[in-house]
Amino acid sequence: MEQDYFKKGKLEETAKALEEQIEKDPGNPVPYINYGNLLSAVHEYEKALVFFEKALELDPEAGAAVYSMGIAFYQMDRFEQAGKFFLKALQNGIQEGDVHFMLGMCFVQKGEHIRAVPHFLRAYEMNESDIESLFQYGLCLAQLEQVKQAKDVFLTVTEKDPGHADAFYNLGVAHVYFDEPDAALEAFSHALSIQPDHYLAANGKKNVENKRQ
């Protein structure tokens, strides 16, 4: 019932329904997790952590609570703690692409791109419609100066999602790296056709054009 309320955006009704569940069944970790997720949805992350911690007191193996704690810490820019919880979620059996993706993002935020690579790749392997994981994988390869591999990844992203402006921009950067100005211009122009205010693509296009004058 609380999920129906949440879908309709009736947050107060959702909170009340969950409070009633907690009162009726205080030993059940699920309503605590749902209440924490409700608080996270309205950016009350510190308060949400209290409910996730309570759920874990009741069930230390509650993977959903562990994952939700990771999300809350990530949203608070506490990436070290977030990463520990995402890793624990994997250890607790939540072998899902989202967990690998978020763990990868924690490593990216800490500048540890080499550690992020296998998690983005795993997330994509688990769900090949997860274009964002593939894109982040390409960004990591580029950061690690594996530009040829990154270029191939960005090309794949643009083929799978022709509306991905950032992928076209990064594909353009890769073409510049390999001194392929025509292809670079095409990629930057494509990015701008999707997102006319894409500053980086506009700047990349201008730089290539200036070099050709």
UniProtKB/TrEMBL annotation:
Gene3D superfamilies: Tetratricopeptide repeat domain. Transmembrane segments: none annotated. InterPro entries: TPR-like_helical_dom_sf (IPR011990), TPR_rpt (IPR019734), Ycf3/AcsC/BcsC/TPR_MFPF (IPR051685). It comes from the Bacteria. Keywords: Repeat, TPR repeat. The keyword GTP-binding does not apply. The keyword Repeat applies. SMART domains: TPR. TPR repeats lie at residues 29-62, 97-130, 165-198. PANTHER family: CELLULOSE SYNTHASE OPERON PROTEIN C, TPR REPEAT-CONTAINING PROTEIN MJ0263. This is Tetratricopeptide repeat protein.
